[in-house]
Amino acid sequence: MVRCFLIHTVCPLAALGPADSRILYCRVFGPDEAEQHRELSPEETRVLRKEKTAVVARQVRSAVSLSREASGRLLVEAVPGEEALALQEADSGVLRLRAGDPFAEEMSALWLAVQSVAFTLVCEPHENLLLAEGSLRNLTRHCLENLHMLGQGSEVLLRSNRIDALLSRLLPHGQLLFLNHRFAQSLEKEVAAYMAK
After folding, report:
1. Domain that holds residue 35
2. Are residues 24 and 157 in contact, defined by beta-carbon separation less than 8 angstroms?
3. 43 to 22, 39, 88, 110, 160: CA distances (angstroms)
4. Could you tell me the superkingdom of the organism this chain comes from (predicted)?
5. What CATH number does the domain containing 98 carry?
6. Which of 83, 109, 168, 179 has the fewest CB atoms within 10 Å distance of its CB?
7. The pTM is what?
8. Which ranges of the chain does DSSP label H, i.e. alpha helix?
């Protein structure tokens, strides 16, 4: 099962410190076992989840920086309409999140960094990582194409309902889907029809 899906920045912004990352979108699937055993108010639960996702975003940001430094490639800004090319040249990787840092049990974080934005799936350790990577690439492609995230003034913060709709179709309740060709085409048509609204 996927525990959460994040969209966050990986390049420094003027308002943030050099080690900070801004979370643009976060969706948590299912309750966290550690939160169930404690008597926390809804506000305390929300703050705890926010802190956990911020830790994941910082760790992914660090991994992206190391990957980019090691590759030595120059980061070329793509313009709207070049989403497919930007996705093709995106950096990707997997992080192992140890138990207690930040989740109660060990997790895997798959990330895909497209220019200054990273898309991250946090999965349970027994999940099929190849299937998770395919789902992450599919989600990222739809987000880039339909939300125009590469252009100036991206509307990702204003269109979280569209990301929710994508997740409900491509990652229902945090479950990874095995997609055959026909089912994938059917989902593509459904997503395209929704995004055209």
Report:
1. 2-195
2. yes
3. 20, 12, 40, 28, 21
4. Eukaryota
5. 3.30.450.60
6. 168
7. 0.84
8. 33-37, 42-71, 83-88, 129-147, 160-170, 181-195
